[in-house]
Every structure is written in structure tokens, then in C-alpha cells.
């Protein structure tokens, strides 16, 4: 009688102790890695809404909020006879515009409309590298400008006499979302504030409903 042949058991590889240790360490570390990730940055708060305005741009064309519908935009106030503050602010915004490209529009409102004709605004934009088609320099009726700047953007400005040197205005720029809501004010003299402006504008442009 032949003995029944019983196959030898198949040897299965087993994890070495050091592999088990590494695997368990990875599993235990995963929640820690997730917890270490920074929380998402919330969008900037809503601070108000820009009211209706009717001005003209540097080409002489009528300009109102409908030209910016669905677009994130950045606004400031300038005047072309300004000897120092306005050129510096404009040149800083040139850097902002280059960083953002076509994602946003820029709007610069003249607070010296009697002098700042569309032709002078065009020359000012050209001289300071602000010739992007997404950058709108606005002038128009002085009362409309005063209402837009003071009540709309809530940026202070004043002029005590006919002497242009008596003109003063705020140096903050305004971030406006695609729904015409003000989302932030940024000191144009502060490089960190300009970096925040770029980051916030990118966030809003990437999430129009934010």
C-alpha cells in the first residue's frame, strides 16, 4: 500500500519586524500630517457696495459699473498734476496689475476733473506704464466724482483752494468683487498690504461667488 503523498505547506513571506514598525508609524502619523495643514483662508469680508456712477474713461467713452459687471476690480484716486504721491501709487499698482494679468480690472478716478481731460489721463497712463486695456482712468462731472469717491469708495479727499498743492486724498486702494461689493482697503505705501491685495484679488477672481 502506497503512502499517500501530502504536499508540503507553502511558505508565505512574512513582513519583517522593521517593516511592521514603519507601517504602523505611517498610519499613526497620517492624522498628524493632516492636522498640520493650514486651514483654508476665508475670503475677505464684505464692507459695502459701490453705488451707481457715470463718468468717462481716457478714450472719452462713457463708463459706469456695467463695464465692470462680473469682474473683480481695484480702484484708487489720482490726479495728473500730483507731484509725487499719485505717480508712486500708480507705479505700485503697475506691479499689482502685472501680477494679476487679465484676472482683474483697475480703475483710477481723477479728483481734478477740470484739468484731467481724457487726453491728459491717457498721457499720464502712458508715462507711468499703466497702458493695460484693463486699466480705466476716469474723469467727468466734479459732483459725480465727489460722490463716487467719498460716498462710493469712501476715500477721503479735499481741496482748500484753487492751488493744486492744497489737494489731498487718501492713498488706500479698494478691492471690489464681481458683484460690486467692497472687499478691502489696502495702503499703497505698505508692500505687505500690496501682497495681500494680490492674494485677495486672486482668491476672489478664482471664486466669483465668494
How does this structure look, described?
It is a single chain. With 210 residues, the chain is an alpha+beta fold. The protein has one domain (48-206): Glutaredoxin (3-Layer(aba) Sandwich). The protein has 5 helices and 10 strands, in the order αββββαβαβαββββα. The strands form 2 sheets. An 8-stranded mixed sheet has the order 1-10-9-4-5-6-2-3, sandwiched between helices. It has a two-stranded antiparallel ribbon with strand order 7-8. Helix 2 links the parallel strand 4 and strand 5. It starts with 16 loop residues before the first helix and ends with a helix. The mean pLDDT is 85.
Briefly say what this structure is.
Helices cover 35% and strands 21% of the residues.
Q: From N to C, what is the helix and strand string? A: HEEEEHEHEHEEEEH
Strand order of the largest sheet: 1-10-9-4-5-6-2-3
Beta-strand percentage range:
15-25%
How far the N terminus sits from the C terminus, by CA atoms, comes to: 86 Å
Core attributes:
single chain, 210 residues, alpha+beta, Glutaredoxin, 8-stranded mixed β-sheet, two-stranded antiparallel sheet, 5 helices, 10 strands, 35% helix, globular
What is the topology?
Elements: H1 17-36, E1 48-49, E2 55-57, E3 62-63, E4 72-78, H2 85-100, E5 104-110, H3 118-127, E6 135-139, H4 142-153, E7 157-159, E8 167-169, E9 172-176, E10 181-187, H5 191-206
Parallel strand pairs: 4-5, 5-6
Antiparallel strand pairs: 1-10, 2-3, 2-6, 4-9, 7-8, 9-10
Helix pairs in contact: 2-5
